[in-house]
Every structure is written in structure tokens, then in C-alpha cells.
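Note to self: keep these together.
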Amino acid sequence: MSAFLEAKRANLNRVLSALSGEAEATGFKPMLLHLEITTRCNLRCLKCGHATDPPGTPRIMPRHLAYSIVDSFDEYFESAARIHTFGYGEMFLYGRLHQLVDKLKHFECSVDGITNGVLVSPKEIDWLVDCGYDELTFSIDGIEPETMQRLRGVAVEKIWSALEYLKQRKLETGRDRPRIVVNFVAQSDNFHELPDLVRKLAGYDIYFLGVNALMKESPSDSNGKYSQLYQEFSLANAPREQVEASLSEAGALSRAAGISFAAYIDLDDLYRETESDRLVQIMPPAKTSNGSAAEKLQPYYCAYPWMSAYVHADTGMRVCCYMDGSLGTVLNGEDFAGVWNQGEIENIRGAIRNGEVHPACGKCVKAGRYQHSFVELESIKSALDAE
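Structure:
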């Protein structure tokens, strides 16, 4: 067993002990690190804050995460199992991406990211395959050139070319990484293209296809631009039976093509005429001892505050992308330790420990996203066990 794998497994055991309520469990570090290496983007996709936020909005201010900051995180890379190298910008605009990934792979971390695909050149693909980059997600919202041009400002042929070359290079080198994921955001004006998109993707060695709906709200949408977009193009504007048929066909086609598929859409909630106060269940709800669905939050209902840290390009830190506010400022590894071990994060852990909802977590709990923390934790456990 390598020293790094041993350190990651030991850290996982500390995290699991903390989540089981062991009072003496200390010294755990994040198993999942999310590094927003840049907020700069080369596109202005209609649904993104880069297109809808007013100028000067903090989350779209053009900035990179200083490499000197991440260069001080070695002890956290040693303990982490998975690192995300993306955020509110396009990861391939980060000038020190190669250097960062080389460091992460040295520490035997699984590394993944999201791209719009425009900057994924043959040269970048050669590097991705050679360095063993683990998983790359492409954002694709349609198969028709006009649809992708309208929704994302992308010439979709560039993406098909990149996917074809990725498949070719992996075959030539005998490697299976990076695994390719596709994310599709379903709207009333593009959902019908989903089955044909799956037919197209069947030829490109795609690992997973995930389907999401437009977010219901954008807290920073002070000028109403996103609200207008949502009202016009929400999936709920399309007949439910047509949406269900499209999702069902896409799922069947994906299975036939050997592509894992998931639609993270609660149709009952989407088509409800009035706003619901219930918890949205994006995964099967927990069961009580008598087999009925749980109606309230259980102690330790979310694992993220014990296993996840998200460092933003503006040097703020949160436990996940849904959290409101900030845990504190991180300018180096020492700051990281302080923010991770004391202050606001302890208040959040205390609330979740008691099955309560901290104000910073309200949006996440309402959306049901907290449930995914245990999916990620199980995925990390499985990956470390397989090593």
C-alpha cells in the first residue's frame, strides 16, 4: 500500500467515526476538495450568471485562484481522495492547470472537472490522457447546431471533434481515462433533443449522462434576468407526458449503449402549481423502522461538513456549492486549518448533528441536495477499497 493511499484510508476512517457520533473523533480532513481555480469564462451561456448577473457581481468577477494558495495545501491533498478542478469559470482558462493536476496526481488524488469543450484542443487531450486525468464533464444542451449556438454560443462540431479525438487517443494508448461525462440541462425548448443526443453520444465512449432541469431561482438575480429566462424556458412549460416520454426514451437508449444515465429531476415538484414546503427528494427518501418514508431530518443527515471543502477563487471557503455565505478566508494551508476546525463550520456541524437546519444550509435542504453527500461518500469508500 502506498503512503498516500494509507493516509487517505486513515482519514476516511476518522471521517466515518465523526459521522457515527464518536465524541473523540478528531483530526479528520476533507475527503472531497473543490477548487474553484477560476471564475473567468470564454462563453456567456444564457442560463449562467456570466450572462444574467449584473456587472460587478462577486461570483462572476474575473479572477484566478492564486497558485501560491493551492501550493500550500499539500497535507490536505495527501488526505483527500477526490479533487474537483472547476467552478464558476472555464477550467482550461487557468494557466497553471497542468501544474496543479500534476501535483494532485502525485498525491494519488482522483481529479475531475467540467468544461464547455471549446478549449479542449488535441494538445489538451493528449495531456489529459497522458497525465491520467480521471473524469471530464462536457456541458451539452442539444444536438442541433442552432440549439447549441443559441443556448451556449458553441459550434457543436468542435465538441464532437474533441470527443472523437479523446476516444481515439484512449484507444491508441490503451488507457481508460479520462472517463467522459455529459451534463444536459433540460428546458422546454430543448428536452425533445435528448433522445437524439444519446444516439449521437453512443459512438463516443461516454461513461455517464446526467440530466438536470433549470434551477428554480437565482438569489443574485437582482435585475430579474434569470427569472425571466426561467419563466420562459422552464421545463414545466412543456407537457409533462412529453417530458416523461423523452426522459424514458433517453434512459432506454443510454442503457442500450452502455452509458450510465440519471435524471435529477423531481417531476412532481416541477409540475406542482404552488410552491411546496416539503423536502425535495432527488433520491429515494430514507425509510423508518416500519418501512414508511421519513418525514423529518435525522441526526447527521448531511456528510458534507465533515468530508467536503470548497475553496473559491475569491479565497472564501464553504462546505459545498449550495451553502449560503462563507466559512472564512483561506490564503494558505494555515488558514485552511483554522476555517476547517473552528468558527462557523462548528455551528453548521452542530445543527446537522441534531437534525436541525442551519441558515447557511436552508437552500440545500429545500432542494434535497444534501442527500447526495452520502452518495459521494460511498463512492469515495468504494474507490479506496478498490485500490
